[in-house]
Amino acid sequence: MPKVYSLDFREAVLRSLDESQSKSAAHRTFHLSRSPIDRWWALREQTGSVSPPVMRCGGTSSLQGAVFEAFVRAHAHATLGEMSQAWQQQTGVSLSAMSFSRALGRLGWTRKKRVGVTSSVTKRRGRSS
């Protein structure tokens, strides 16, 4: 994982570039490769700041809480695909059937894999000896 440089260090590097130092000279002075210098320069051009972007990982699911549980109870006999479509119509948020499957698992609900009982293809028949 790349090292996260402090905001002061980032600003010092870019300040040296603003004072007409070349990127090559800044990279030698600060013992830093050119790629972070280029990224920080572009970031400052786009946002006006060199602070690192906030990385979102995980996060909270919209499929939690009493609202989702009430939705599931109302659509208990629907397939995962039908639940996904109904959720999108109700909330405007598009989610996959797999997202619903994981959320139902967190609630302790299971889904049937087959509609009816199927007979085994490999039934035991009388053996000849």
Beta-strand content estimate: under 5%
Separate helix tally: 6
User: Can you give the mean pLDDT?
Assistant: 81
Coarse morphology: elongated
User: Major β-sheet, in short?
Assistant: none
Give the termini separation: 66 Å
Please bin the fraction of helical residues: 40-55%
Order of helices and strands: HHHHHH
Radius of gyration over C-alpha positions, nearest whole angstrom = 28 Å
Low-confidence stretches: none
Q: How many strand elements? A: 0
Instruction: Label the structural class.
Output: mainly alpha
Brief write-up:
This protein has 129 residues and is mainly α. The chain is built from six helices and no strands.
Describe this structure in words.
With 129 residues, the protein is an all-alpha fold. Among the domains are: 41 residues; 43 residues, no CATH class. 51% of the residues lie in helices and 0% in strands. The chain has 6 helices and no strands. The longest helix has 14 residues. The protein is elongated, with a radius of gyration of 28 Å.
